[in-house]
Design goal:
The complex is a heterodimer of chains A (358) and B (609). Chain A has 18 helices and two strands. By secondary structure, chain A is mainly α. A two-stranded antiparallel sheet of chain A has the order 1-2. Chain B has a six-stranded mixed sheet with strand order 2-3-1-4-13-5. A three-stranded antiparallel sheet of chain B has the order 10-6-11. Classes of the chains: A mainly alpha (358), B alpha+beta (609).
């Protein structure tokens, strides 16, 4: 996308051209006259092409070939893992039912896609899934400053052993798999779990509270679990950048009479912001990929309506309901939505910062 | 995409010197990339081609070596190698070890079936469901062995060849592809169960006795009785975690399984979302507000409102519920084979404690008729890549023999082999002490070393495939395989059964009581499996099933009657919106076809006898 744009751009915009237009960049670098007109560039290219015609395998080329060999494994991997799987998209256009091989399956064209918006109920189902995806991801992004606050708070703890203890305890959950997290959740919050038993024995409630098997506040509960699991881990990067802040800044502030709170507001926070924005951008780009293992383990008949995010929906349809072709079609839609999101963020970035991300 | 461009870009801006070459290089690269793509494409074609090739030539040779047989077992409940005494029997007889590959254990629905079939080898021995065209697909993809060339000496398979013929019809290709479950010699209009129906209300009889045998006219009465039983049980034991009902979600398929099974108490069976009574009358759907499914849903909801449903119901699994059942924490079950086999141990029966059929007065329990052609809904077959096929056919033949029946004890509803579990006494079969324990309460029972040692329960067959109906007569004993109706067993007395019998008008078996009160209905036993349906339809069907299960559960645990009704309304709206009418049309046709098959099989049997 950006490549095409850059081709249309005038040659005077040197920075842009250099990043994206190889032939121009090569030519200009060779002539070392960046402001020269397009005519002379073309002339130069012509000359080079003629020169190449004479001796085919000159040193430069050999050197370049070696460099190519260096990147080729990476190229191969990106083809293998990013492009080759796209071959699987053909399943969305067939009526694939194992064990009948694809070659003998019926070609159905856009059937699975049209089915998705064939009637209002289907449309509502997809809409609800997208809403869940956006909702849960959105909650995560809105609260993405939590780790920053946590890191700052942690940094302000004077007692070293206590700080280390807190940090270890909060980082640990990150290494527990979601299946085990669910086991913990079940032990604590099931109808006969610890929390309900304690509350009942205290006489505070008479009927057990349905923590796990109710459809209300599912997004919040899921957000709470992922925060519990990821808070300590998320703070690590900020702790690292906290140590990188120049102590002179603090000293200067102290000399100026700033108290601890003022130091946090005027030094720590601004110093952490660049890191925060990089991470925020990364999480925006992962907007649709909120994973499925967490929601998979927490899903049941009661939570399903609000917990089914896109990835889980694809799994449920493909693996749970055995409709592999439809699942493929839906996951293709995910790519489409991703591209739209990317385009939107990129446009916004260009408008606001004047620099495109992609 | 981004990664790819990003890589090129960073290369360009890294240094002017390198830049000079990169463009030419990428031109040179193009042919490489092209070659790579061509290579990958051809590789994928080769890979895709793997599954389709298969040879069907008969090879009756046998290497005579011990072999491990991979069993893909869709209805099995254990994974891994067969252990214990059953393993020893088949090792001695056939030199085989069974290795079970079971979706029920691995989880993930049909994904195991899909991946294995796509790889071209489902297993050596295959026990699979056949409905929705699955059998036809397996045969078409060349994954099953035609057993025709191996049938020379297979007495029992020849005896039940009508089952193979039904399977052949379903497969749509000539050959002997497999055999159905539960085949029988007896009349299809007679009940296949001679002791107890599979599904009927069973209650902890001792608590029912304690509250004074109240009348149970209908389901509404039943709620009250269960509530009183629960109160009594909690008072007697001082335990507050005893519940009248404990539900679970594992078996939810096209509706909430616990409510669905109760429709059997009223004589209904179903194809997809359409239910029919007895031999196909009174058709209705799960969405009918006055239909039987919603009646049983409402019963569960009333139980929930009365506070007699285990609060773990919506989250627990079948295994967790089984533990509770074994610990006598549940007072009512939907099946004859559930509580009775788990709680009614000899000691308990001597104390008068255990499960018995409840005298629910309006029950009309559904009982399947005998199946002359077997139940071809799931079949046993041999994979096309299996080795020593003759030996495997011999093994299947043995499974259909009386010897094989007794060896598959617990699964087949028989006692374990003669000599260990039963002996002939005065010309009649009679259970040994070991046999009695093994049949009614095998927990903790160990097998003698000469029979292979180990725990009895752990060593029983994991195939979970009922070959011959246990109500059939064993020609060597002249009594049915099912020991519960042996003369020697019925003569035994214990306080529990005697009390029940005295209260139920002297009935000796559940079927005897139900017959006297006209409280069961027989559907003639026809072999029927639903045909393949359009995959778009089955996708819609799956969505509807999910919606119905979801709203059924929500309705059952709703806080109020209004909440129940609103969930039911949502269920009906969603299902209709997704295209319920289409599904109903197909299920109606399937019911009609099933009924027709029933009539045919009855006529066929009459013509023969």
């Amino acid at each position: 996308m950006s490549q095409q744009k850059a081709t249309d751009a005038p040659a005077t915009d040197q920075a842009k051209a250099a990043t994206v237009q190889p032939s121009l960049a090569t030519a200009m670098a060779a002539t070392s006259k960046p402001t020269e007109s397009l005519e002379s560039v073309k002339e130069y290219q012509e000359k080079r092409r003629k020169a190449e015609g004479k001796h085919h395998w000159n040193d430069e080329k050999r050197h370049g070939f070696h460099l190519f060999l260096l990147v080729s494994p990476l190229l191969l991997f990106s083809i293998l893992f990013s492009y080759y799987p796209l071959f699987g998209w053909v399943y969305a256009f067939y009526d694939y039912q194992p064990p009948i091989p694809l070659s003998e399956s019926k070609f159905v064209g856009w059937q699975w896609f049209t089915m998705l918006w064939s009637n209002p109920t289907q449309l509502r189902a997809i809409g609800q899934v997208l809403l869940n995806t956006f909702g849960i991801s959105g909650l995560g992004i809105i609260t993405s400053f939590f780790p920053v606050m946590f890191a700052i708070a942690l940094n302000e703890i004077r007692s070293k052993w206590f700080r280390n203890l807190i940090q270890t305890l909060t980082t640990l959950p990150n290494f527990i798999s979601w299946v085990l997290v669910y086991a913990i959740a079940f032990a604590l919050f099931s109808s006969t779990g610890m929390v309900n038993s304690v509350l009942q024995n205290l006489g505070w409630i008479h009927k057990p509270i349905h923590f796990l098997d109710s459809g209300s506040h599912v997004w919040l509960k899921m957000w709470a679990w992922s925060t519990w699991k990821g808070l300590g881990w998320g703070a690590i990067l900020y702790l690292a950048s906290l140590t990188g802040i120049d102590p002179e800044l603090y000293e200067a502030a102290q000399v100026d009479g700033a108290n601890r709170w003022q130091q946090i507001i005027h030094i720590t926070v601004p110093q952490l912001l660049p890191t925060y924005f990089v991470l925020l951008m990364l999480s925006v780009s992962n907007f649709l990929n909120n994973g499925m293992d967490q929601y998979f383990v927490f899903q049941n008949a009661f939570t399903q309506e609000h917990i089914q995010v896109l990835d889980l929906y694809v799994y449920n349809i493909g693996m749970g309901q055995n409709s592999l072709s439809l699942a493929t079609a839906i996951s293709m839609l995910k790519s489409v939505v991703s591209v739209i999101l990317l385009w939107a963020v990129n446009t916004a970035s260009k408008k606001i910062r004047g620099v495109s991300i992609v | 995409m981004r990664r790819f461009f990003g890589m090129l870009k960073s290369h360009h801006i890294s240094s002017d010197h390198y830049d000079r070459h990169s463009w030419h290089l990428s031109r040179a690269t193009r042919s490489h990339v092209g070659a790579a793509i061509a290579l990958l494409t051809s590789a994928s074609l080769v890979l895709a081609g793997c599954g389709s090739a298969s040879s069907q030539s008969a090879d009756t040779s046998d290497d005579g070596k011990m072999m491990t047989v991979d069993v893909f077992d869709q209805i099995g409940n254990v994974g891994g190698l067969q252990k214990g005494w059953f393993a020893k029997i088949i090792k001695d007889k056939f030199k085989i070890r069974l290795n079970y590959i079971t979706p029920n254990v691995s989880g993930g629905g049909d994904s195991l079936f899909d991946t294995r079939t796509a790889a071209g080898n489902l297993g050596d021995l295959i026990i699979t469901n056949t409905g929705d065209g699955r059998l036809a697909k397996l045969v078409k993809a060349g994954l099953l062995t035609d057993m025709t060339p191996y049938m020379k000496n297979e007495t029992y398979l020849k005896k039940f060849k009508s089952s193979a013929q039904q399977v052949e019809k379903l497969a749509g290709k000539k050959g002997i592809w497999g055999y159905g479950q539960d085949v029988s010699d007896r009349s299809p209009s007679e009940p296949a169960e001679i002791y107890a129906p599979k599904a009927a209300p069973y209650i902890m009889w001792n608590y029912y006795r304690e509250i004074g045998y109240p009348r149970i006219k209908n389901l509404d009465d039943f709620v009250g009785v269960l509530k009183r039983m629960q109160d009594q049980a909690r008072k007697d034991t001082g335990k507050n975690d005893i519940w009248a009902l404990s539900l679970f979600k594992d078996w939810d398929g096209n509706a909430m399984a616990n409510a669905q099974i109760m429709t059997n108490w009223y004589g209904f069976w179903q194809e997809g979302q359409v239910l029919a009574y007895g031999n196909g009358t009174q058709r209705q759907t799960s969405l009918d507000r006055k239909g039987i499914y919603q009646k049983t849903l409402r019963f569960l909801h009333k139980c929930e409102a009365a506070g007699i449903v285990d609060p773990d119901s919506s989250t627990q699994s079948w295994d967790q519920r089984t533990t509770k059942m074994n610990n006598e924490k549940i007072l009512m079950t939907f099946w004859s084979w559930d509580g009775k086999l788990k709680v009614n141990s000899a000691e308990n029966k001597a104390k008068g404690v255990g499960f018995e059929l409840a005298p629910l007065e309006d029950q009309k329990d559904y009982v399947s008729g005998n199946l002359p052609n077997g139940n071809i809904g799931s079949i046993i077959a041999i994979g096309s890549k299996a080795k020593n096929k003759q030996r495997l056919v011999n093994f299947i033949n043995w499974l259909y023999s009386p010897d094989g029946m007794y060896s598959s004890a617990a699964v087949s509803g028989t006692p374990c082999p003669k000599g260990l579990c039963w002996v002939m006494k005065n010309g009649q079969p009679a259970l040994t002490d070991f046999g009695e324990k093994a049949f009614y309460n095998p927990a903790g029972l160990n097998v003698p070393a000469s029979w292979g040692g180990g725990g009895f329960a752990e060593g029983q067959s994991g195939l979970n495939f009922q070959t011959v109906n246990y109500s059939d007569i064993d020609p060597s004993t002249h009594e049915p395989f099912d020991p519960r109706v042996w003369k020697s067993e019925l003569a035994k007395k214990n306080p529990l059964d005697s009390d029940w019998s005295a209260h139920m008008g002297g009935a000796k078996t559940d079927m005897e009581y139900l017959e006297k009160h006209h409280e069961y209905v027989v559907q003639p036993g026809a072999s029927y499996a639903s045909p393949e349906e359009d995959s778009q339809i089955s996708t819609v069907r799956n969505q509807i099933n999910t919606a119905i299960i979801q709203h059924s559960w929500k309705a059952v645990v709703a806080n109020s009657d209004a909440g129940f009704d609103s969930e039911i309304s949502k269920m009906i709206d969603t299902a209709n919106g997704l295209g319920f009418a289409k599904i109903q049309k197909i299920d109606d046709a399937n019911i009609a076809a099933h009924v027709k098959a029933c009539d045919e099989v009855v006529a066929q049997y009459k013509a023969k006898h």
